[in-house]
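tl;dr need the bound structure. longer version: we got a ligand (1,3-dihydroxyacetonephosphate) that a collaborator sent over and nobodys looked at where it sits. i said id run it. heres the input, straight from their email, havent touched it
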Amino acid sequence: ALISLRQLLDHAAEHGYGMPAFNANNMEQVHAVMQAADEVDAPVIIQASAGARKYAGEPFLRHLIIAAAEQYPHIPIVLHQDHGGEPAVCLSSIQSGFTSVMMDGSLMPDMKTPSTYEYNVEVTRQVTEMAHWLGVSVEGELGCLGSLETGMAGEEDGSGAEGQLSHDQLLTDPDEAADFVKKTGVDALAIAIGTSHGAYKFTRPPTGDILAIQRIKEIHARVPNTHLVMHGSSSVPQDWLKIINEHGGDMGETYGVPVEEIQEGIKHGVRKVNIDTDLRMASTGAIRRFLTENPKEFDPRKFLKVSTAAMKDICKARYEAFGCAGMA
Ligand code: G3H
Ligand code: 13P
Ligand code: ZN
């Protein structure tokens, strides 16, 4: 059954676990997330980005989730819209049946330029007011995701976005978080602690100077009733990186957010952990390996099957590591 993000994360807070929120764009990803959840009895958050809606088309995405709910009636599912760039995007997702939306007002609608605090409060407050009338949950974002190593807002390909961000912009301020939550009424708050989107997060395994896990405690202390969200939380599995590069791929050396650091975050109020890149890497690695090892094969179901299995293994590992196994 579809439930709201608030319902699920309240349960997570009560029982002290964190929820991976997996991005999905197609049937194989939805299969992977659901099969893993079914095996370990975990609830599910599936999120769709603007890119996913463009890729699959809104009706196809919606019906994939309806299909998931029908095939797995015992698993609670949150259908969440990832990174809404403006209130209109959130409203259209609400109309199409999403049970949760993210109003990302940390950036202007171009999704590149950092916004002002006042703008962020205003758009997030508007969306929250409307969403709550309909029982839909809202995630806001305060602070800009980006690398404390380079000062750059992360782009998926590892290049920087709109110029340099200051150290302050890259870390959510706890006092500002308290004010933001009070003014907007959001259910969940995405915070900036040095992670960035995509595969190229860190040039070395992250330590305290480039990944500010400590900051989570300070923010949580100020907004104890708002569920914290970590974006850019892929761990960038080194085994899949190796498999990709051994089978014709060419990805550079790179490191993600270690699962142990996420577990530390969950101890201090993180309830939603966004993961996209890890599934992309598992899928690509599995397909590359399969096609090199089976050059005569041309039935796409064969390589899509190994892709689904590889993604499922990652989902299962995260459910177990974040404590949500057995919580469905
Ligand atoms: O927020 C970033 C997610 O990884 C979604 O990426 O916009 O390419 O679908 P996307
Ligand atoms: P990753 O690129 O680390 O998987 O982050 C995904 C994300 O934050 C989606 O909103
Ligand atoms: Zn994100």
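gonna send this back to them w/ a short note. The chain has one domain: 5-322.
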